[in-house]
């Protein structure tokens, strides 16, 4: 039965929904109740003025009666039958089923959509478990701490009399490990808890530090003016939920303080009033280029005259700190795009790089990326250098035609035939 022969069924369903008697509808469109009964049982075709009049009384468009609201519903039912991977003898009557029993058809289609959504959620969560290094590290921390507690408890339970010194030492280990397990478990639960009321769910030290810096707009006037020390700011920071986060925040603030001492706010504000030239600033303030790039990223937007982003990493490529900027996606989990100038700088230590870039699938806004890598400590004949790299990101009003196209992370990059790709994008799988 084709959809246009179900017009009568749709008229009947709509009439019953409005609690309108058959005789009342027939009287309003000037036909007999018996003729309307034939129409509603699909024994008489309907069209033209009569269809328009009935649609007007029922308060719907004529197309809703001829094509039906179940066009998409029928498509979903066919998908459900195909996904069932079982022969469906009544597949040819799916139109009639949707027309005669729209309620049950909607229930079936809704359950199919729900199952499809749940399957997709499982796929995404499975992908997250596989490719999320932060989650893997948190789980490893919980398991290793639990194993340490079990080992210590076994020694205390199975060994005979212990010397007081060793017994006290084992008790102290139990206390320290149990506190560490409680802290890491709480962080893991916060990380996984989708019902958290906190919009910026965190669970790892890096995210806590970023939330702390973001709460201050990456600028600390108290440090600039000598009114507070990094230790005092960290002690009062509600965003720092763990000892690891407080330690990392302290290190970042100490670096901030050193950069601020080398380049005081008033002096650097005058220096960048006309032009942002990191090399000239490094010469003016007699400091290294990495310090200049970090300092520029922490200046207030009204001082710099534009937004700014910052990323720096160690020799493994792991992100140690980041300041987001609109239009340039910085991945929350996983490795970043290897095409970033940040990583190119690691291959060319102490050589400043300037690149114009755009991101795949983002806005047409271009960015100027300034990057450099430097050794963390003085190198020696028997000591290999350990490099870190920093990249300052500045938005450009016009994107250049020869700008370098980069991504954010391979897992969410739409670039085709990219030589730097290390894993398949989930966008290709239409998650």
TrEMBL record:
<dbReference type="InterPro" id="IPR010982">
    <property type="entry name" value="Lambda_DNA-bd_dom_sf"/>
</dbReference>
<dbReference type="Pfam" id="PF01381">
    <property type="entry name" value="HTH_3"/>
</dbReference>
<keyword id="KW-0238">DNA-binding</keyword>
<feature type="domain" description="HTH cro/C1-type">
    <location>
        <begin position="11"/>
        <end position="65"/>
    </location>
</feature>
<keyword id="KW-0804">Transcription</keyword>
<dbReference type="Pfam" id="PF09856">
    <property type="entry name" value="ScfRs"/>
</dbReference>
<protein>
    <submittedName>
        <fullName>Helix-turn-helix domain-containing protein</fullName>
    </submittedName>
</protein>
<dbReference type="InterPro" id="IPR018653">
    <property type="entry name" value="ScfR_C"/>
</dbReference>
<dbReference type="InterPro" id="IPR050807">
    <property type="entry name" value="TransReg_Diox_bact_type"/>
</dbReference>
<keyword id="KW-0805">Transcription regulation</keyword>
<dbReference type="InterPro" id="IPR001387">
    <property type="entry name" value="Cro/C1-type_HTH"/>
</dbReference>
């Amino acid at each position: 039965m084709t959809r246009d022969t179900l017009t009568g069924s749709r008229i009947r369903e709509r009439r019953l929904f409005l609690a309108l008697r058959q005789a009342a509808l027939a009287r309003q469109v000037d036909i007999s109740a018996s003729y309307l009964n034939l129409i509603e049982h699909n024994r008489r075709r309907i069209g033209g003025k009569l269809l328009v009049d009935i649609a007007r009384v029922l308060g719907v468009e004529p197309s809703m009666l001829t094509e039906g609201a179940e066009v998409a519903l029928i498509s979903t039912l066919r998908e459900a039958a195909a996904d069932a991977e079982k022969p469906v003898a009544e597949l040819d009557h799916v139109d009639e089923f949707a027309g005669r029993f729209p309620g049950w058809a909607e229930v079936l289609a809704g359950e199919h959509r729900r199952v499809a959504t749940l399957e997709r959620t499982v796929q995404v969560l499975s992908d997250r478990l596989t490719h999320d290094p932060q989650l893997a590290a948190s789980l490893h921390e919980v398991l290793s701490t639990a194993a340490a507690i079990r080992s210590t408890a076994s020694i205390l339970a199975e060994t005979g009399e212990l010397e007081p010194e060793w017994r006290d030492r084992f008790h102290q280990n139990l206390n320290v490990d149990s506190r560490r397990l409680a802290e890491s478990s709480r962080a893991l639960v916060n990380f996984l808890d989708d019902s958290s009321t906190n919009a910026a769910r965190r669970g790892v030290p890096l995210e806590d530090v970023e939330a702390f810096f973001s709460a201050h707009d990456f600028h600390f006037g108290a440090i600039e003016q000598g009114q507070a020390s990094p230790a005092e700011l960290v002690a009062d920071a509600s965003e720092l939920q763990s000892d690891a986060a407080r330690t990392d925040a302290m290190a970042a603030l100490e670096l901030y303080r050193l950069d601020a001492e080398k380049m005081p706010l008033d002096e650097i504000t005058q220096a960048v009033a006309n032009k942002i030239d990191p090399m000239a600033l490094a010469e003016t303030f007699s400091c290294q280029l990495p310090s200049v790039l970090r300092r520029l990223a922490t200046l207030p937007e009204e001082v710099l005259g534009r937004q700014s982003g910052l990323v720096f990493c160690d020799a493994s490529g792991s992100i140690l700190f980041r300041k987001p900027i609109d239009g340039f996606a910085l991945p929350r989990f996983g490795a970043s795009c290897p095409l970033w100038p940040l990583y190119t700088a690691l291959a060319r230590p102490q050589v400043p790089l300037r690149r114009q870039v755009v991101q795949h699938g983002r806005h047409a806004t271009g960015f100027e990326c300034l990057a450099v890598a430097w050794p963390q400590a003085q190198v020696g004949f028997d000591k290999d250098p350990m490099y870190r790299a920093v990249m300052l990101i500045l938005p450009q009003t016009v994107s250049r035609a020869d700008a370098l196209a980069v991504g954010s992370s391979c897992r969410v990059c739409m670039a085709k035939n990219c030589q730097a790709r290390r894993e398949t994008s989930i966008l290709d799988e239409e998650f």
